[in-house]
Amino acid sequence: MFGTLRTLITGVNARAEEQLRDAYSIELIDQKIREAGKNLKAAKLSLAGLIQRRKSEEQQVNTLRACIDDLMVRAQEALGAGRDDLAEGAAQAIADMENEVMVRDQTNASLERRILQLRQSVETANRRIIDLKQGAIAARAVKREQSLQKKLGRHLSGESPIEEAETLIGDVMNRDDPFEQGEILGEIDRSLDHTDMAERMADAGFGDSSRVRAADVLSRLKNKI
Predict the structure, then answer these.
(1) Distance CA 29, CA 129 (A)
(2) What is the 3-class SS of 86-126, one letter each residue?
């Protein structure tokens, strides 16, 4: 008996919810479109931030490279004048800056990939919102037509375009953000990264190093002289 009552109550609630969604379908569509617009705006701000950061990194790299070129000339002059002490200091500075340039170049490459992915997501979301707005206009026209037909005692048949619009909106809003997933995966990868072990082994004399050292720069300078 209680099972039957529970089933009946569930059915009544389901019908009531369906009727409510149908009665306020246009309002629901407009609300979902506004929510999608807010999400798109947030994504645009994130994209702008990434682009701004990439430009800043590029400026830093250009500044570093200009300093490297200047110090290389000065170090060569110091070596020619027998000031090895000054040349060694300049070589260390050059090595540090070249290593920093490599790191910033890697950062720029990563930023470029993220910018491309987010830009594609923004463009796709923008097109979908435009389609949803067009669908909302059509849904309003259908709703008006349904209201007039009800007043005239007519009955509509077939699947409702409003329900199709609601389903489409639900699919768009419930999808996981690929950019956020990519960020999380990146954090996990960085937490598990042990690539510095190879550099530590190289510093100990086991294998070649991927970093530029002051001794390498000084050797190049002496070879040029």
Answers:
(1) 11
(2) HHHHHHHHHHHHHHHHHHHHHHHHHHHHHHHHHHHHHHHHH
Q: Which two tokens stand for residue 63?
A: 């500044």
Please return the burial class of 204, using the count of CB atoms within 10 Å of its CB with bins 0-12, 13-18 and 19+: exposed
The single-letter DSSP state of residue 158 is S
Sequence-ordered list of residues with C-beta below 8 angstroms from that of 166, at least 6 positions apart, any chain: 21, 25, 28, 29, 32
Alpha-carbon span 201 to 198, nearest angstrom: 5
Residue 61 token pair: 């790299």
Averaged pLDDT, 63-92: 90
* Non-local CB neighbours of 169 within 8 Å, separated by 6+ positions: 29, 32, 33, 36, 132
Residues 6-49: tens digit of each pLDDT: 555 555 455 555 555 555 677 888 888 888 889 888 989 988 99
Cβ–Cβ < 8 Å for 82, 153: no
Biggest CA pair distance of the chain: 105
Is the pTM of the predicted complex or chain greater than 0.85?
Answer: no
